[in-house]
Amino acid sequence: MLITDADTNKVFFSRWITDFSCYTHIKDALLKYNIEYALLPYTQDWWVRDFMPIQLTDKSFLGYKFNPDYLQDKRSYITHPERCYQSLNINVTPCDLVIDGGNVIKTADKVIMTDKIFTENKDLSKIELINALEKSFGHEIVFIPWDREEKFGHADGMVRYIENNTVLINHYKDFDKELRKKMLDILQPHFDVIELGYDIKTPIDWIWVYINYLRIGNIVLLPGLGIEEDEQAVEQFSKIFPQCTIEQVIVPEIVEEGGGLNCVSWNIKI
Questions:
Q1: This prediction's pTM
Q2: Euclidean distance between CA atoms 48 and 266, whole angstroms
Q3: Among 5-19, 56-70, 73-87, 170-184, whose mean pLDDT is lowest?
């Protein structure tokens, strides 16, 4: 069984997150629920989810090459996390595949990724890459289509694992029925699927961000934007996670940069 968000009990952020004024709100929420947290040294930007290793079991972490195409003209922002590993005294098993941590959604016994992974490992055939991924993760990989409106190709803005073989997908029924159908066709043979949906009154592209929540154990920190749809998101998440406490954290500065609370965090079981 893979370690999932429900198993985690500590969360890390890049030291750069302190540049955001909304970090105060994040920190207050963590302190409110006695969640252990720390800041990582040796990071080049605040998107720690993308370059930190993936925890597979209690003591097993999978490393990978973080060399995304969208940072090739901004290479100073590419973190080489080996010094982060050393500062935490964790053992990381390396693999030679180019992966973004934001494109890895762990379920209890599978991993969900977008098919952008194939464009970033073109030196391997499709079969070779699938075999290499499944060997590295030790579990089946389920590939969903890359949402081309989002250049990063990350799965964590599209789908998340809840528990009990159930996944949550973003509100595609509100704006992209074709992509919704493709995702359902792929996911439903493996999982029970719950869909988000909103009565959208605010003309804003950021509403996707609610699915980019941070879950540590039974606490869900839900991104908020300071708009009317925030309340709709809280109502839905309270029903989707009846066993969890939902705490909304207003983080528009982070969303403006292109990510949410899952993107800026790295939660693990210690």
A1: 0.96
A2: 6
A3: 73-87
